[in-house]
Every structure is written in C-alpha cells, then in structure tokens.
Q: What sequence folds into this?
C-alpha cells in the first residue's frame, strides 16, 4: 500500500476514529483501525467495537486539493490512537503511508519518518450483522439531528439498574422523536423529517449518540440518512462517505405518554438567557447541598430564587417573569433545571407547574421541545426541603 494524504482530511477522519476505538482493552487488535486503499480510488477507514461500527471514505479525486492519492492499493491494520497522534503532530501539509513486506507502515511528512508495526489484517474482525426485517429510514438536516441529540441525552440515567433508561428512545413515524428519562426528569424533542420507508423505534445508548453528535457536520445544507431498526441505528452523511452504526439497547423503554401533564395550574414565562445566568449563580451555593436543591416563588412579576448551605452560606436572586395562574412555592434540583433549559432553543422558557408537589414542565419557543423536572417537597416558604 502506498497513499499520499492531505493532512487536514486525514486528521479529520482519525479524530472521529479515536472517538470509537477503546484504549483500555485486553486484546491489542481492538485498539486498531483498518485502512484499505482499493482499486476504485477509495481509501476506506474502519473501526469496530461490540457496540458500534464507524466507516469513513476518502476519495482519490485526481485533481485539485486531493484528500488522498493512491499510488498502490493495499490494506493495513494499525493502532488508532498512535497513528492519530503522529499525524496530528506532523508539520507538513501532506502525509504518506507506505506498507512494507516486513509488516511495517512507514509514515512520512517533510523531515519526519515513523515506522509502525502493523497487525495481520485477518485478525481484524469485520462486522457481520443480521438486520431485522422491519426497516424504516429518513433524511434530515445534520444540524437538526445534532440538536435533537443535545435535547435528549442529558436526561438519560447513568445507573445500570434499568438499562433502557441509559438510552434515548428514537422513533420514526411522523418525523423523528427522541424521549429520555432518568426517573427524575423527562426530555422530549421532535424534528420533522422526510420519511422514506416504514416506522419504528429503538433505544440507543446516550454515550454513542453524543459521539455521533460530535462527528456530525455543521454545514447548514448537509443531510443525514438515518436507518432505524429494532437492533441498531445507522447514520450516514457526506454522500455515504461516513457511516456510523450503533447497536441498540436490548431492553424495553417505558411508556412515557401517560407522564406528560395536560393541565397546568400556572404559566411562568422568563427570558431564557437571564434564567440560566440566575440559576448558575444559585448553583454556586446549592451545589454542596443534598440533591442541589433550590426554591423559587412566583410573586409580583418575579421568580424569586433562593438556596442555602449550612457550611457555605445562602443566596437570594430573582428574574422578571410573566405570571399567569397560581403563585406556587416550589423546590427543585438546580442542575437538572439548568441542563434542561440549556438544551432548548428560543429566547424564552415557560415553566408550567401542575401543583406545589407535582411535575414541572418546561417549554421553549419551539413547540417540539419540552422537558419535565420533578420537584422536591418543601415544608414552607421559610424552610428548606423536608
């Protein structure tokens, strides 16, 4: 194998590869990436774990600033982290990969030269999947998918006692819907999409969805092809040049439809940016308290917030609000509120309590985004939580 890469394009691919490849595993080959230059002017990069498969392609375009120029086809398997670190620190704009008959990959750029031991390509386990029969797919904007992931993964559980809650339930039907919960909060986000075939849903691990969001392009016009099957989801973009497949969680996601409240006792509408700033000031004190608890009261066109810690001190703050309905005194987890509000778009946030000790629904200007945060019980306006 002999390839000359544009360093910028090569590094972009390798940055994605190391998001997938584990670093602490017993088998060394699990830390590798498979690089194959083909006779059809394509360089294929492949990373495989038990949970995900990532494929990248660089094309020998034959003109202009070429991502890859293939001088001789071939295949090598090398350590992913090390090859990425080498390429990152090379000073030249071009990087050459050449494999030798002795099982060595020679990496050169300007005055730098590295010789890396390779693995027998037969030791690299190629993915083999048995797809479920029912397939559904859709096309959506990459930025919309990235935003939908942001608006859902924050509410996933980190506990292994209920595996389904460690993931996001993705559903394709009338658009793409994401629902997640850790039993203390619930997130909902929806994106209109062009459904190509079928309907269905899968529970996808939040960790890998966050990695997918980090890899997605930020171009306004870049589209993602999404395929959703019971046992996995696949997202591909760049005209199929990049494909990321995530194994689904084999557990039933609980029915959340009955949890969403339909009637509210009050509406408190505030400026989103101002509320975030105020909550973050309150968190300075409340972060040391049990459950990071703070209180707010709606009164005289304001939401008044307060928290106290017997060791650190106490804080009182407020934010202007448009108040409709009853004025409640509510307790809540400050961090949960901040994470939910930060995940949303829009200029305003509407807080919709259903009662003094019932779920608090948060809504943004976008009707396709909402969240629930469970309150904590408060004893009185002058005491902390029970």
A:
């Amino acid at each position: 194998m002999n390839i000359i890469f544009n360093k910028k394009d090569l590094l972009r691919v390798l940055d994605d590869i190391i998001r997938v490849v584990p670093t602490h595993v017993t088998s060394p080959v699990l830390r590798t990436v498979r690089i194959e230059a083909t006779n059809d002017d394509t360089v294929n990069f492949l990373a495989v774990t038990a949970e995900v498969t990532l494929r990248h392609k660089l094309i020998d375009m034959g003109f202009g600033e070429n991502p890859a120029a293939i001088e001789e086809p071939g295949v090598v398997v090398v350590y992913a982290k090390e090859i990425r670190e080498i390429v990152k620190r090379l000073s030249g704009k071009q990087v050459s990969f050449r494999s030798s008959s002795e099982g060595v990959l020679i990496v050169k750029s300007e005055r730098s030269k590295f010789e890396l031991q390779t693995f027998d390509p037969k030791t690299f386990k190629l993915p083999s999947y048995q797809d479920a029969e029912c397939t559904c797919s859709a096309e959506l904007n990459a930025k919309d998918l990235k935003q939908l992931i942001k608006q859902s993964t924050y509410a996933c559980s980190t506990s292994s006692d209920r595996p389904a809650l460690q993931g996001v339930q993705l559903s394709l039907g009338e658009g793409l819907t994401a629902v997640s919960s850790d039993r203390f909060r619930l997130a909902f986000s929806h994106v209109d999409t062009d459904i190509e075939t079928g309907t269905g849903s899968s529970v996808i691990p939040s960790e890998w969805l966050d990695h997918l969001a980090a890899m997605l392009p930020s171009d306004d016009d870049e589209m993602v092809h999404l395929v959703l099957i019971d046992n996995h989801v696949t997202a591909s973009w760049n005209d199929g040049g990049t494909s990321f497949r995530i194994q689904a969680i084999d557990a039933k996601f609980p029915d959340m439809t009955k949890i969403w409240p339909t009637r509210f006792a009050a509406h408190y509408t505030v400026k989103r940016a101002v509320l975030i700033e105020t909550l973050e000031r309150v968190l300075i004190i409340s972060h040391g308290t049990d459950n990071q608890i703070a209180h707010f009261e709606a009164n005289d066109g304001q939401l008044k917030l307060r928290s106290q810690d017997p060791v650190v001190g106490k804080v009182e703050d407020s934010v202007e609000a448009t108040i409709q309905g009853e004025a409640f005194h509510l307790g809540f987890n400050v961090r949960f509120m901040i994470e939910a509000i930060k995940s949303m778009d829009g200029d305003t946030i509407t807080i919709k309590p259903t009662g003094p000790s019932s779920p608090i629904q948060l809504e943004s200007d976008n009707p396709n985004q909402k969240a629930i945060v469970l309150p904590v019980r408060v004893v009185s306006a002058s005491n902390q939580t029970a």
Notes: Helices lie at 7-20, 80-89, 142-153, 206-215, 272-286, 334-342. The domain at 266-373 is CATH 3.10.150.10 (DNA Polymerase III; Chain A, domain 2). The radius of gyration is 25 Å. The chain has three domains: 2-123, 136-247, 266-373.
